[in-house]
Amino acid sequence: MKFTEKLNQNIPTTDVTRSAPHAMTMAQAASKLGVSRQRVYQIANAEGVSFVEAQPRRIVTCPKCYRVLRVLEADFVSESVECAVHKWTPRALKDLRHKLKLTQDAMAFALGAGSATTTRWENGTHRPSPKYMVKLEALEEAANA
Predict the structure, then answer these.
(1) 102 band by pLDDT with thresholds 50, 70 and 90
(2) Residue 16: what pLDDT?
(3) pLDDT, the chain, mean
(4) pLDDT value for 83
(5) Which is deepest, 7, 23, 90, 140, by most CB within 10 Å?
(6) Is 40:25 a contact under the CB 8 Å cutoff?
């Protein structure tokens, strides 16, 4: 059985993929056939099968701690992004609270935290945990709506 026939058997039965195995990347072909990319490359060269190039991707990282935030298509221009750890600075927390016109106690109640906790966040002695960062994002959306 030829490589292209085997490839066509292992992919969804649409006209495009049946008639054009070259409409997928080498990695996709390897995954469909259950073999390594190197083996696909060897067989494809022997039979003259060509593949599309994989889309280049760009990794966006936090400029402060270099955590990977997301992977984007290469032509996408991203705005300046920060991870949630650096987004919720003491000043940002205080600004959000003032924007919502809440006291520290009311903010703590809205987040389901203790009033001492929000005080520590605003003083910079502690940082919000990921659980509270999600709640802070929701509060920020409500403030901006």
Answers:
(1) very high
(2) 32
(3) 75
(4) 73
(5) 7
(6) no
- Asked whether the beta carbons of 49 and 59 are under 8 A apart, the reply is no
User: What token pair was written down for 1?
Assistant: 């059985």
Structure pTM? 0.49
DSSP letter for each residue of the chain: --HHHHHHHTS---HHHHH-GGGS-HHHHHHHHTS-HHHHHHHHHHHT---PPPPPEEEEE-TTT--EEEEEETTPPPPP---HHHHS-HHHHHHHHHHTT--HHHHHHHHT--HHHHHHHHHTSS---HHHHHHHHHHHHHHH-
pLDDT band at 39 (very low <50, low <70, confident <90, very high): confident
Among the four given CATH numbers 1.10.260.40, 3.20.20.150, 1.10.238.10, 3.40.50.970, the one describing domain 88-144:
1.10.260.40
Mean pLDDT of 117-141: 90
Domain locations in the chain? 3-47, 55-82, 88-144
